[in-house]
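User: My collaborator and I are trying to settle a disagreement about how two of our proteins should look. Neither of us wants to argue from intuition anymore, so we agreed to look at predicted structures for both before our next call. Could you fold the first one, then the second, and keep them clearly separated?

Assistant: That sounds like a sensible way to settle it. I'll keep them separate. The first protein:
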Amino acid sequence: MSKNTVNDTSEVAKAVIRRNTEEVQGKGNYALFDQLFADDFLDHTPQPNSTPDKAGALKLYKTLRGAFPDFHAVIHWQIADGDRVTTYKTYHGTQEGEFLGIAPSGRRIQFETVDVMRVQGGKITEHWGVANLYSLVQQLSAA
């Protein structure tokens, strides 16, 4: 594979991940989710009580938007290595629905994540991620 082919693959992969972050997670465009995620998608780091597949990812996205209707991310940077994209971002939102057993509080939250997603044939096929959910729980539980 030539250097230009690798660069092209990386740029396409970054654009797919950016669309997922901005349009699906940030705007709730679930029709686009279905287009961007491969049917055999595998999440190597699923959240507790979730499945490591496409249905599990969609459930998580809908749960987050249900609890935080203004849920969105600020992407700080992305780095691509071929078909794998690493993204560092901060999610923001206002809790207007129950989340992790915590009643709606109206609190504004933010938490950081780093994730890696693989994009093949224009679709997200794999995910690995780490999120600072402890910080999120602290913000929601604060008196």
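The second protein, kept apart from the first:
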Amino acid sequence: MRVWMREYLEDVDRYRRYCPNISRLALIVLNQGLWALLQYRIAHSLYASRLPPTIKGALLVLCVIWQKVVEISTGIEIPYRATIGPGFYIGHFGNIILHPDVIIGKMCNISQGVTLGISGRGERRGVPVLGDRVYLGANAILAGKLEVGDDAVIAANSLITRDVPQKAVMVGNPAQIVSYKGSADYLSA
């Protein structure tokens, strides 16, 4: 099985944990997050492929058009250059913006209104890198060259501009660590 399909099925399985009584097909048809992830998984696979440049370029143009259609209809922007681990879960659709160079680990959750963007100056200019099992609450903003450790939680409406340790729970603007309880209670097993 192709890598993109295996990863997409892992995404779908994450959704099924939250909605166990809904079939895979119903989830794929009805869930905007899965529409965006299908487009991303196929486009990213093409981007990472070893196809001849002219063929790859033409197909990527079609993928960008598809991405824009998905983005306009769902409010979810996932560029094909982004790196996203399997089991990604988008809790609610709308106003999700990911920079093309962002890296997101396995089994992460992201809520509506989240932005992962570029910021900073000099050596601090860059984009976020998220570890595994990270939970991002609604309207969280992560900007600049920073790393979020495994099992971290970024609370709703928080602004993150510096590194986040493993299992840290960050709250506020600017965000501060309020505990080290981690993300286990936020992620569906």
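Some points you might bring to the call about the second protein. The first strand starts at residue 76 and ends at 77. The helical segments are 3-18, 24-30, 32-48, 53-74.
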